[in-house]
Amino acid sequence: MTYLDYLPAIYQEGADPDQLAFFNAYLLGFEQVLTGVGNASDPGLEEFLDGISGPAGPVLGGLARYFIPMAAAELLQTDRHFLPWLSGWVALVLRQDATEAQQRRLIANAVSVFYRLRGTAEGIRQVLAAYDIGVQIDEDLERMQIGVNSTIGVDTRIDGGAPNEFRVNAYLPVADPSQLAALTQRITAIVDIEKPAHTFYELTIDTPVLQIGVTSTIGVDTMLGTPPA
Questions:
Q1: pLDDT tens sequence across 131-177
Q2: Around Cβ 160, how many Cβ atoms within 10 Å?
Q3: Residue 74 per-residue DSSP state
């Protein structure tokens, strides 16, 4: 049924076909905006709120889909333009250099994972993993005091770190210096935000070693022997 079918009978019975065509075209604009006409790519207000049902199931999941950052079987994922808006609902500030997939991952896990583990080594590791950065985090023991809180060979190693200090070791499979610098800066910025304020850390970066045909190509980015003067 269309809006024309809801008009009083006086506007329908014996009306001139041209008049009916005009009324139908005139009302179609309101129908498109308010009710919708079944176009999933341009839903009306009711379709936006309630969703569109098709022969094969839901075509649109309605308003709820704008709160689902990741794809689900019964709901379409949130449009990418809504991701910054949706991140505000979980008090999350998205980095400008984050990809769309990373943004979705961060929003989806903000409350259940990142906030619950905030300030822990695992929390930092999870946040970096959401940015597709794999790290290993080592937390050093307290400063060595032999006979007080340390026993050589049991719970103490020589060259232990200072109190409240940890080490972040990241493996970055890139060889380009500019990319490496950008990734290092990204890791530093993320860890600075996620770590407890009273802690300190040391960042070490591991990059690929020389592997001919894998990370290096002779004559392109690799040279054997001593470079010429």
A1: 999 999 988 645 556 666 566 666 555 555 566 889 999 988 887 88
A2: 14
A3: S
Q: Say which DSSP state 70 is in.
A: S
CB 109 within 8 A of CB 98: no
Contacts of 140 (CB under 8 A, 6+ apart): 160, 161, 162, 165, 166, 167
Where would I find the beta strands (DSSP E) of the chain? 52-54, 57-60, 135-139, 165-171, 200-206
Distance CA(189)–CA(170), nearest Å, equals 14
Residue 186 token pair: 């990204």
Contact indicator for 170, 134 with CB cutoff of 8 Å: yes
The residue type found at 166 is: F
End-to-end CA distance of the chain: 85
